[in-house]
Amino acid sequence: MKYWLWGLILSVFLWGCQGSVATDVAPITLTFWHGINPPANRIVFEELVAQFNAQNLDIKVQPIYVGQADQQFPKILTAIVGNSPPDLLWFDSLLTGRLVDVQGIVPLTEWLQKGSHLANLDPALLPGMTFEGQLWSVPFTTSNLGIFYRPDLFAQAGITTLPRTWEEWATVAQRLTRDRDGDGRPDQYGLLLPLGKGEWTVFSWLPFWFSAGGEVVQDTIPLADQATLKALHFWQKLLHMGVAILSAPERGYEQEAFIQGRVAMQITGPWTLGYLQQTGVPFQVMPIPQATRPATILGGANVFVMRTQPERQQAALRFLDYVLGDEFQVQWAIRTGALPVTQSARQHPDYQAFLATQPALQVFLQQMSVAYSRPNGVNYHRLSDCLGRTIEATLLGKTPDQAVAEQAQRCPSTPSTHG
Question: Could you tell me if residue 289 is inside a domain?
Fold first, then answer.
C-alpha cells in the first residue's frame, strides 16, 4: 500500500480517537435555582437554557424551580449551611446583604469590570447590584411600576388629559368613581390600593415615597421622615375621598376588579401585559403621578454566582455571559414582555420591531430613568415588614403619625454591618 494511503488511514484513526475522548468527557452540570412565574415564562427560560446547552457541550445548565420568594429563602439558607448550594441563584436583589452575610455568594466586580457588560447595562440597575462597594449579581430581567387604566371608562367620564401630579390623579379618580345603579353606593371606583403588610404593598407604595423626596440612607428607609408621612397621608386621602377601594388582604396584584370595570386604574407592571391582552379588555398605561419629582420603583430579578468550586464558578460566569447577551435578552423580552436589561438589546432591530406593536412598554422604558432601587442590606426583610405594617395600619384607619409611632421602636433605623 502506498505511504500516503497509510498516512491518510492513520490520520483518520487518530482524529476519530481524539473525537471520542472529547465526547466522553462529562460536561459540568450547573444547577440554576429560580422562582420564575408564570409557568409560561418558565417554559421560555427552559427553551433559552436549551439553546445555551446546545452551544456549549462542556457545560449543562439545569433549571430547577424552587418556589416563590417566601418558599425559596429557607431552602437557600439550608443549602448554604449544608454546603450544597446551587451554582446559580435567581432571586430579587434584596437578598444581597443576607447572602453576603452568610458568605454564600462571590463578588462579580472584577469580572464585570474586565468585560463589556457593565457599560452595556442600564445604569438604573447598578444600585441593586451593589453592596458594600462590590457588585454581587447581574440583572436577569427588569421592570417598574406604572398605572394601568381603562381608556373606555376615561372616555365615559369625559377625561381627555392624563394626570401628572398626585392632586390631578385624585381629581381624575373622583370623576371615575360612579354609582351606576343608583343605590347610593359606588359600583365603580377610580383605583385599587393594595391592602396588606407584605412586599407587594411596600413595593406599590415606594414610588410615592420616592416621589415625595424619600432617600435611602445607609441601606434603610427612614420611617419618621416627611416623605413617609406625605406618602401615607396621600394614600389615606384617596380612601377618605371615597375614590379608592382596598384589595383583599395580600392580593393587591390581582386584576379581576380592573378587568370587570369595577376599578378604572391599578398600580402594576409590564408583566401583566400578556395576560390583559388575552382578556380583550381595553387598557393603556401612564407613568406614576408625581409629588415633588417623577419616580417609580425597580422590579425584576438578579442572578447570583454561589460560592462553590473555582471551575464551577467559571462555568457559571459563561452562562451569565449568555444571559447578558442579545440572544437571550431580546428573546426573553419579546416572549415575556419584560424589559431588557442591556442597552444593546433595547436597540436590537428585533426588539424595536416588537416595541412598535407594544406602545405600553414605552412608558416603562421611559420611566427607567427615574426608577429607584429598594435597599438590599442585611435588614431589608425587617424593614419591609415594618413598612408593610405601617402602610396597612394607615389604610385600616390609623393616622400616619400613629402608625409610624407604633412601628418606630421595632424598625431597623441603621444598617447591620457585615463583619
Answer: yes
Residue 2 domain flag: no
Find out whether the peptide bond into 270 is cis, omega within 30 degrees of 0: no
48 is in which domain, residue-wise? 8-142+299-364
User: In this structure, is residue 390 part of a structural domain?
Assistant: yes
Our count of domains for the chain comes to 2
Number of alpha helices (DSSP H) and beta strands (DSSP E) in the chain: 20, 13
- Which residue bears the cell 365603580? 188
Per-residue pLDDT of the chain (419 residues; tens, 9 = 90+): 444 444 433 443 334 444 433 446 789 999 999 999 888 899 999 999 999 999 999 999 999 999 876 667 788 889 998 899 999 999 989 899 999 999 999 999 999 999 899 999 999 999 999 999 999 999 999 999 999 999 999 999 999 999 999 999 999 999 999 998 888 899 999 999 999 999 999 999 999 999 999 999 888 888 889 999 999 999 999 999 999 999 999 999 999 999 999 999 999 999 888 889 889 999 999 999 999 999 999 999 999 999 999 999 999 999 999 999 999 999 999 998 899 999 999 999 999 999 999 999 999 999 999 999 999 888 888 899 999 999 999 999 999 999 999 998 777 654 333 33
Instruction: Say how many CA atoms lie within 13 Å of 160 toward its Cβ.
Output: 1
419, part of any domain: no
CATH number for the domain spanning 235: value is 3.40.190.10
Q: What are phi and psi of 261, to 5 degrees?
A: 85, 10
Do 201 and 396 contact (CB within 8 A), yes or no? no
Q: At what angle do helices 349-356 and 359-367 cross, to 10 degrees?
A: 120
Same domain, 120 and 150: no
The Cα 155–Cα 186 span in angstroms is 18
CA distance 10 to 88: 44
Based on the domain organization, do 210 and 272 belong to the same domain? yes
Whole-angstrom CA distances from 363 to 151, 296, 300, 360, 370 are 16, 11, 16, 6, 12
Tell me whether strands 59-65 and 28-34 are parallel, antiparallel or unpaired.
Answer: parallel
- 184 and 253 belong to one structural domain: yes
Query: What's the rounded Cα separation, in Å, for the pair 419 and 416?
Result: 9
127 and 151 in a single domain? The answer is no
Amino acid at 152: D
